[in-house]
Amino acid sequence: MGTAQKAKSFLRGNKLYQQRARKALPLLIAKATANQTMFYFELADELEINNPRNLNYVLGSIGNTLQELSEERGYEIPPINLLVLNKRIGLPGEGVEKFIPKEEFSKLTPKEKQLIVDRLLHEVYTYPHWNRVLAHCNLSPQPVKDNSSLSLFDAIQRRQGNEGESEFHQNLKSYICSNPDVVGLPKNITGKTEYSLPLGDTVDVLFQLEQEWVAVEVKSRISDDSDIVRGLFQCVKYQAVIEAYQIVIGCKASCHVLLAMENQFSTKLLQMKNLLGIEVIDKLRGHSQT
Fold first, then answer.
1. Could you tell me the end-to-end alpha-carbon distance of the chain, in angstroms, rounded to an integer?
2. 170 with 178: CB under 8 angstroms?
3. Dihedral (C-alpha) 170, 201, 213, 278: value to the nearest 10 degrees?
4. What is the C-alpha separation between 58 and 64, in angstroms, rounded?
5. What is the DSSP letter of 91?
6. Which of 3.40.1390.30, 3.90.380.10, 3.40.50.920, 3.40.1350.10 would CATH assign to domain 146-281?
C-alpha cells in the first residue's frame, strides 16, 4: 500500500503528519490563488521539516481530506497537492497517482504526465471555493507574516542611486559569471555581466542558452533583509521585462530569473519568496573572494 493510501484525512486524527497537513493546506491555497506551484523543499522549509520525504504523508493526508470532503459535501475539489513538484522532473511525486483520474498514471511518458498535470493545475488555479474548503476544515487563510512586512517597508523607503557598487558585489557577479554551475547551469557556458534591458535596468548576470535565458540578480554579503526584498522584486520585474524583450526580438527561448546571494536566506522572508515564486540560491559566501 502506497503512502497516499496509508495517510489518513486530517479531519479526524491528530498525528504529526495530520497536524502538518492542516498547516500546509492554507499555504497551498495561497499558492493556488497566486497561480503558482512550489517544490518539495520549499514546502518543507515552510513547515520546518528537515527531510522533504516526510511530506509524502502530509500531501497524502491533504489529498484524502479533500476527497473525503468532496464526498461529504457533494462538490468536487481539485487535487491541490499537485501544486508541490519534484524540482528534478518538474512533476508531482509518485504518491499523487491516487488523486489523478487517469489509470496507470505512473506508466505514462513524461510528456503525457505533464499534459494531465497541467490540465489539473488549471482547475486548481481557477477553483473559486478555496475559502469554503478552509471553512469546512476549520482553517483560516494563510496570513502574511508581520516579520516580512517590516523588511518590505524598509525596502520601499530606502533611497537608491547614490551608494555605487561595492567590491563584494562586483566579485560575486564575476564569480557567478565564470562559474555557472553554482546556479545549476553547465560549466562550459559563458555569461555576461551588467546586461542592459530596454527599461534602462541592467541584469547583474545573464546566461543566454539556446533554449533558455537565465538571469541572476546578485546580493553580496553586505545586503540586509530590506535589500534582499528589493532583490526579490527585481527578479519579478526582470522576468516580465526579459520575456517582453524576447517577444520583440523574436527569441523563442524561455526565461528564468533567480536570486543568488552570499549569506543564508532569512527565514523571515521565506513566505514572501514562495508567494512571489522566486528561486533563491544562497550561502555562496566565501566563494567569490580568495
1. 53
2. no
3. 80
4. 10
5. B
6. 3.40.1350.10
Distance, in Å, from the CA atom of 2 to the CA atom of 103, rounded to the nearest integer, reads 16
Provide long-range contacts, Cβ within 8 A and 24+ apart, for 47-55: 47/20, 47/23, 49/20, 54/17, 55/84
- Distance between CA 48 and CA 39 in Å, rounded? 14
- Which residue has 505514462 as its cell numbers? 108
User: pLDDT tens for residues 89-142?
Assistant: 888 887 777 888 666 777 888 888 888 889 999 999 999 999 999 999 999 887
Please compute Rg for the chain using Cα positions: 21
Q: Are strands 279-281 and 202-208 parallel, antiparallel or unpaired?
A: unpaired
pLDDT digits (tens, 9 = 90+) for 42-65: 899 889 898 888 899 999 999 999
Q: Where are the domains of the chain?
A: 3-136, 146-281
Please report which residue ranges of 127-188 form alpha helices under DSSP H. Answer: 130-136, 146-157, 167-178
Place of cell 553580496: 220
